[in-house]
Design goal:
homotetramer; Heme Oxygenase, Chain A; 0% strand
Amino acid sequence: MSFCQGLWQANQALYQRTLDHPFNRELAAGSLSVERFRHYMIQDAHYLVAYGRALAVAAAKADQAEGVVQFANAANEAVVEERKLHDGFMRDFGISAQDFATTPLTPACHHYTSFLLANSWSESYPVALAGLLPCFWIYAEVGRDIHARSQPGNPYQAWVDTYASEEFHAAVRAVIATIDRVADAADSATRTRMAEAYRYSAELEWMFWDSAYQESNWPTR
Amino acid sequence: MSFCQGLWQANQALYQRTLDHPFNRELAAGSLSVERFRHYMIQDAHYLVAYGRALAVAAAKADQAEGVVQFANAANEAVVEERKLHDGFMRDFGISAQDFATTPLTPACHHYTSFLLANSWSESYPVALAGLLPCFWIYAEVGRDIHARSQPGNPYQAWVDTYASEEFHAAVRAVIATIDRVADAADSATRTRMAEAYRYSAELEWMFWDSAYQESNWPTR
Amino acid sequence: MSFCQGLWQANQALYQRTLDHPFNRELAAGSLSVERFRHYMIQDAHYLVAYGRALAVAAAKADQAEGVVQFANAANEAVVEERKLHDGFMRDFGISAQDFATTPLTPACHHYTSFLLANSWSESYPVALAGLLPCFWIYAEVGRDIHARSQPGNPYQAWVDTYASEEFHAAVRAVIATIDRVADAADSATRTRMAEAYRYSAELEWMFWDSAYQESNWPTR
Amino acid sequence: MSFCQGLWQANQALYQRTLDHPFNRELAAGSLSVERFRHYMIQDAHYLVAYGRALAVAAAKADQAEGVVQFANAANEAVVEERKLHDGFMRDFGISAQDFATTPLTPACHHYTSFLLANSWSESYPVALAGLLPCFWIYAEVGRDIHARSQPGNPYQAWVDTYASEEFHAAVRAVIATIDRVADAADSATRTRMAEAYRYSAELEWMFWDSAYQESNWPTR
């Protein structure tokens, strides 16, 4: 079993809970409220820019020149996706540029992006990558599941279709391959840190969806 | 009004809510449950090590050699405090080294420490310092308030007394002086970022106390 | 006069010395020894990977999402250029993959790349960008000059032609525009640091060419 | 043989060249020109502040809380030493605060400090430490050698005596112990990077002394 397969298996129960989360079930069924979807999209856009920054830091730490290319491109892609959201889904769902600009990060989004940035900046390359993996991998698998379950006439069908993009799945497989390679060469303390970083991100991924469903906000505001 | 006084005033309502939080009121009254205090102490110890790391990054970015000394010493102090907790209050309240080692960071502690690390690593020196300020300043002021209100026979009196340490208050004044100096020299976009970083930390400070009171844990475990 | 134009003017004499350097004069004349050109190409390839890493760090620090895209793409481009060298000019001039792998960085290349990395990691976004500018700008201008002066039958003509690429010049103009924008918003201490970082890189750029001409190596080996 | 002993042995020839360098021989004999000593002291002061910054970054990356304390203290010590130079030896040898402030870093000092900062910021904790080791260890050993050889009436005797400080040697032993521990736990690619970082710093240490002896400056000024 490869290192990444081991991570997947160790976090299988959390993945199942993620699939079963009402946000994802209702998105597939097409019954998710528009408010929750809007909340999610805005936070997703905030998230993607921070994700791009964390990927750029990982690019800078790559052990091989190929990794600089791989993660600089991923950083670029993350922000390009964010730009597309504004001109596509956000417009379709009535979120103006100003709505976006004046909606702050929720605690869940701020927590997840803070962790990704902290982890990419302060940890070694393998650990940085492990923290970045769930957003690629869990997102791709949840997306595939939602796409397969999506009901006819789903108002979110265009969004759900983006999950099935072969280009995205190919990128995910390439990231997994890089992480397996660096994990195989890493010492055991590093592999333990990698598993911890992956776990934190997988949990924060669940909390991100849950926060969108709860439409949570700062208790301090 | 100095830059830091401006920050304080802008966040006055949140400070008042922090003073009024049941955790702090009950700590002053001596009625806080031992479980909540234990929970708090363990998270505080986790927090201090991360705070020391974030301070060390700020030291590395200091605009003047004096700042390297100021924040390298603060980093050292944070971890020395953490060491003292283990040999002092933790022992007194029956928390073994193993209890501590096996108690993971709560979401509130993980969120706050992730933010401090992300902010110190990725932002400029003035913004890094602004994020580090609430833990110095709000903590000192809340402590002074609790110390003043503490009831006779308070089982937490020894802990409450540490808040009154003149050495700690002198360090806080010196940090404020440094931040006022760098804020005065900074451009307006930087001052805006400083205010945002301060606000986030002030909110996460409140959420840290609230989490201890709620004895919160990961919804994903 | 824009901020970047001011930098250019302040360093005009050094630019003139760079144009007049025998390495560049002989490259234009076609009289440069193959050994010196080989030495240069190998160090250039080493340089480009480090330059890509430094650009990726700058991308992570960008004040706007557009900057993440701009510098993540530049990071990608730098390493893509390095890859092309191996399959193109290096092959044409008889440098095998093994020749490259076993040729260490010279002191000049190690000095310049160390500075770029140190500056990108430890300084604020505007200062990081200013350190990265000379390699874009001076290189483009020196290249334009060499291209204009190149003699018929120049054995380095294919190399010299790459300097004239409109795509490269467009990228340089976009970088200058970003730097002018952030410099305009920056405080005066930051602008002073920007000028220092630019100056160091401009000097290290000259020393890089001079080192190739001298075929310099470590005095300690 | 411990990891660090292995590093020492692999770089034995360079160490011998460092001992034999005219700067060190003349310092021991008391025949070094005052100009060369002044040049050295000024660059040493510049160096120490950057060294303190690089140590602070290493502190932030420490794998254990003890390492945060160890290297935050070392960062503090480096700058405290720099402060002492100004009030002690610099005054004794007629270097005013303004002389110092207006003397820029030489290429050798700029190269070495850029490398230390780049290495501490961009590399993992073990590699960061390995780059910081030569300044502790080689300096301590060279100092012991010079102290043993110093001639009666040496005008630099007070300076030479600082090398013999048991406090400094104890700190060096503690750093070696930490590096041996992390090297023992590290994978082989990390140990290779550690050896490379150590080698670069050892070479830059020699070049720093050589530059002082040559009273070198920027060829671009």
